[in-house]
Amino acid sequence: xxxxxxxxxxxxxxxxxxxxxxxxxxxxxxxxxxxxxxxxxxxxxxxxxxxxxxxxxxxxxxxxxxxxxxxxxxxxxxxxxxxxxxxxxxxxxxxxxxxxxxxxxxxxxxxxxxxxxxxxxxxxxxxxxxxxxxxxxxxxxxxxxxxxxxxxxxxxxxxxxxxxxxxxxxxxxxxxxxxxxxxxxxxxxxxxxxxxxxxxxxxxxxxxxxxxxxxxxxxxxxxxxxxxxxxxxxxxxxxxxxxxxxxxxxxxxxxxxxxxxxxxxxxxxxxxxxxxxxxxxxxxxxxxxxxxxxxxxxxxxxxxxxxxxxxxxxxxxxxxxxxxxxxxxxxxxxxxxxxxxxxxxxxxxxxxxxxxxxxxxxxxxxxxxxxxxxxxxxxxxxxxxxxxxxxxxxxxxxxxxxxxxxxxxxxxxxxxxxxxxxxxxxxxxxxxxxxxxxxxxxxxxxxxxxxxxxxxxxxxxxxxxxxxxxxxxxxxxxxxxxxxxxxxxxxxxxxxxxxxxxxxxxxxxxxxxxxxxxxxxxxxxxxxxxxxxxxxxxxxxxxxxxxxxxxxxxxxxxxxxxxxxxxxxxxxxxxxxxxxxxxxxxxxxxxxxxxxxxxxxxxxxxxxxxxxxxxxxxxxxxxxxxxxxxxxxxxxxxxxxxxxxxxxxxxxxxxxxxxxxxxxxxxxxxxxxxxxxxxxxxxxxxxxxxxxxxxxxxxxxxxxxxxxxxxxxxxxxxxxxxxxxxxxxxxxxxxxxxxxxxxxxxxx
Length: 748
Prior knowledge:
about 45% helix; ATP-binding; DNA binding; Rossmann fold; alpha/beta; disordered N terminus; disordered C terminus; 6-stranded parallel sheet; Arc Repressor Mutant, subunit A; globular
């Protein structure tokens, strides 16, 4: 009889989760089979505190689920006393599914909000009395009503911004009266005036009280309040839960950390897992400090590092490591150097396109080549910085006849076609013996195909995209699930499949839907694909224009790192020189690719913080003439013009107009540039002169890069002389402020 394979001899099973149904291990020791030494160390360390520093693709979820299952199967843990928390319903559902497959039934795996809500609902009558106020899942309308009471009118984007600020304030335990001070202390750049936001925030809280409703942040706040004030209730919770596991610990907010501390009490049976290099949600209040300070709070903690990357090829891992090698800050000091465990693969592809539509078409062509070569569409993703970039790729994929799905759409088991299919399958399982539809079926897959054929499933997918294709993809995923289930359980019945579907629905453990995934980089966290297309990697989008501070820029770098590490085999990185065909083509590839892409040199351009030497307005910046000084006939002596990015002295006239080297990255606001260009065309036609007589292209770029908010700021831009300032200044400042000027007559 051959000896069982060990991890050194290929016995390590993939870190990714199979869609098939593995057999439940027959013993506690069998739970450890297939783990590498570090994963096994995590699984066998059953008493806390334990801190697992796990790089991307190193099997962190595998390690902690096997730890829980091993403890339960050995008898060290009682399943009902274990609480595992993570950050998304999808991740919690996946964790519950894995624990079920490992024979650890009864373990609670939930999000922080879900666990807190369950406790709040149970203890509210005892702690407060009466029924728990209704939970509002979407707070946007309440925020709009609060703004209206302040006589502030917000559009959709502004509503989203203010809502985000309120959520940030609450998870950082900041009350309305302290909001402005907290923003300043955190060096946060608020989207609106802090005093105005604080007023809306205060009225939002008042409206909730008037309407007897609570929001998701209140769930955590109220649970914390009850556990702090009622020691008897806190003791009851601690008697229920004795072992805690926290996934994605780098994303914990101060409020979530406080709740965790109250759950723990004075105990230390805690296992946390995280990677500071994947901290990408600081805008929500998340901070890696709790992960990085874990040893300080728990001096006896066991630290285990997972660096064996089972997901990505050496080429992709090398690129990911190189990307972080240029990072700075505290998170960068604790970065993990990944070591790929896979065979060599193709090199990453870097592609430059003339404009964004060409970039989308290029990605679609490459995706078509991959699918024709055998890569499933469901194993391909297109990832972008903002959701607004998806439309071009939806159209390009539809034109190419490639199925796709948008990440972040409604949950699989809540889709109408899935609900109908589930009901039809349940009916067939109950009365199938009298259903002629099933007369010629011989197994579960054929039964499912027969039932779903009445709901729109066909053996061949419909052409094109849209609702019909989306419906077919949902039904096809149920057919594939039935095929996998039957392969794993040959003796199972249709009724057993219904039980499996019920359990998956309860845990939100959805089957895979075939189709290229379109998602933002933030939404892609925790996912992986065989082929990943990172698109729109131009300055101004990656990093995003409004990332100004060193901390914000480093988070943008980490966001790109997350995107790179989603790929298993194929990785494409692309950017466009212009937004639209025939548009301004002065974009440059992301500074984060400097030194990584071929021909870009070895030293990446390091952005300077505002106020640093060479930055506009800081030491070394050129002195400019203000409107007042010019009007008075006196001019300030100018010093040497210096690049506001790298600080180098400028001599070229074009570079002096931009106040930066041609090769230094641009942080142009493209929306402002497009509006300025449209406005310039109108004014030039009114004047009967060429466009450049209003402002040259270089001057428009300089304005869109600076986006001045004052007369003095605009006058400092080369190319804006006093005559043009008097004639066009009001228009330009209005455009920079986001206003639309309706008239074009001269100002003086």
